[in-house]
Automatic annotation (TrEMBL):
CDD domains membership: ZnMc_MMP_like_2 (cd04276)
The species this protein was found in: Psychroflexus salarius
Classification via InterPro entries: DUF5117, DUF5118, EcxA_zinc-bd, MetalloPept_cat_dom_sf, Zn_MMP-like_bac
Span of domain DUF5118: 27-72
Protein name (database record): Zinc-dependent metalloprotease
Amino acid sequence: MRHLILFFLLATNIIYAQKNKTSENIPFNEKLEKLDKSQGLVNTFFGDDKLYFKIPKTVLGKDLLMVTRLKQIPGNYSPYTNAGSKTSEQMIHFVKRGNTIDLLQISTVNVANEEDPINLSVQQNNFNPILASFKIEDEDDKMITVEVTSFFNTDSPSFNIIGDYQKKEYKIGGVDKSRSRIDRVSAFPKNIEILHTLTYSVKEPPRGNSSNTFSFQVNHSIIELPEDKMKVRFVDSRVGWFSLRKYNFSSDALKADDYRIAKRWRLVPKDKEAYARGELVEPVKPIVYYLDPATPKKWVPYFIKGIEDWNSAFKKAGFKNAIIAKEAPTKEEDPDFNPEDIRYSTVRYVASTTRNAVGPSVADPRTGEIIESDIIWYHNHLRSYRNRYLLETGAANPKARTLNTPEEEIGEMMRRVISHEIGHAIGLPHNMKASSAYPVDSLRSGKFTQKMGIATTIMDYARYNYVAQPGDKNIRFIRQLGPYDDYAVEWGYRYYEDQTAEEVKTILEQFVDDKSTQKLYMFGGYNNDPDSQTENIGDNTIKASNYGLSNLKIVAKNLNDWTTENGQTYDDLEELYGEMLSVYRRYVYHVANNIGGVHETLLHKGQPGTPYQLVNREEQMDALAFLNENVFQTQYWLIDKGLVSNFSDEGTLERLININVNLLKRLTSSRSLNEMMNSNASLQGNGLSVHELLNQLTDDIIYQNETPDLAERELQKQMINHFEDLIEDDKLASEIKAYILNIQEDLKPYTRKLSKRKNGILKTHYLFLHHSLNDK
């Protein structure tokens, strides 16, 4: 019996060893062939929870772009992170180092001519980081095989899946490899797509997450960058354009010459001879956007129009049908279609409570060529436009006097938002200067607004015409593309066949020289220029804001009727009231920004004008008079008891006081006062001095109001306290502190005198002011 047992044990071991030996002897390539294979730029083999890349040696050292996007995210994760959000974009190389393949991140910021000796130093001082290193599993004359499983099953360097803020807020731990996996891999001739799931432990998850877990589905696109590089276009600061910064160490200038290249799609005419004759020509490869299948059908026509509206601007550059919108193909029509695939540009419709839309793009870091972009529309953005349409145009626009905004009206707004985001995606940044180009009273003309819109570009934040008054006829209330858009697209997309980038730069500089000093074609950002503000329209902020406030007072009187029907709660009324205060704040701040302001005109030497000039003193004094009438004196129409009593048990006076006090503190912050003193001392123009500003504010808020009401008394107290805070602020110039000390000394006998003359509440108020001044 013992011999029989030994025999069976020996036989079993021999059989197991033979099986194991047989498995080990299977050639590596035969093992690969048993996995799911996909051939393309890099051949991929996927199965048994393993992923292998078989890399052609011709791909080694090639310029590749790796783009990482989120395909699915946890609920309630982050308001501005969604399915489709890009988390990283980087140029990479696969490089062989001995028995490994290194994945390098390549920088293209610092450059030099290859034949220039300094190029060696540029390389030595810009050493490329190693993102991953893979052991070579197999190699032949043409291919090298590596396993990349671990790279995609962890939160590898440069993926940037979790932001620092979210990591701290939710106390997110590391990746749980047991709950992470590679889901799908597809290879194509010019790109590879890898879809995988990463799961993290979470100590403090958001509400509704009881699993203490976050899982993300992530898509990586690795695309071969074109060997035929697009000709770069050097940026002109007078034309707004998204760009990439470069430093040329081979420059003849006595420094590392920094310059910017524009981010543009590559549009090449099909018929170059016809194009040269001035005929409109289709591009070889148009810009194509696919609509998210999740887009509600009723909005699809408006999205398509918003995209293709830009064809009118591309005609100025000589192209027709340059940009095309399509509905996403079905699985039967295109089984390979994937919104995360970098070959497809999409407009994503995101089910989110976030009120926003964005238009990012992916560009070749060497040349600025835009390869792909994804417009993202957040569903709840409809709510923002519905509310503001009522508040800003309702007085003059009967169609806006409801929260059930007509479909054609909300569709038109969506169309223009999509156009705005497409503008970003073709290279255009915001141009806040554009909204100040048109005369204010022209915005009350139906003929003018229907033709010209309400600003010279769709790329401003001039969303609505709040200037038009009740009784004005045939008014356009919603923004549209304008003359600046035509001009900017012509600058960016006019095709030049034979000229070098430097020659094109010279041609375009002349083109801009001829136009950039005209208001229709001016560009400006967010500086201290009252003509470059968000949400404003018209060339005179005081006049425009007076019109806006006149309309807003009408809206306030009707807000209850326009927002709430019988049988409803007052929730919508409360929401719209809060947003009405924001609109009021915006109108008065448009005027306040004249005070201490500096007009900016982007010029090159030889053009007429001065780049920076002070806002005229008279205009600043007019702005102060406006603020005194519309801010520092209590605006009772904003706290109407019959309105506020419908939704608040606490009242809203404090919210109004906060607007007033914050505006005062903004005008007289250490930074604002220091900048105002410096600009007055060193810039051209006759501006308002700091001394005059402080005296005028004190006169308006205190001396000219001896019988202040509750809100005005609080403003006076806050002003006294703020002046003392300024005296204690080390950052405030001592010259300005002297002005404030003088004001305080003058106020002491004044408040003492009034405390003796007044009775009741006013007596206690002035006693408080007097003691506050003497206790400091």
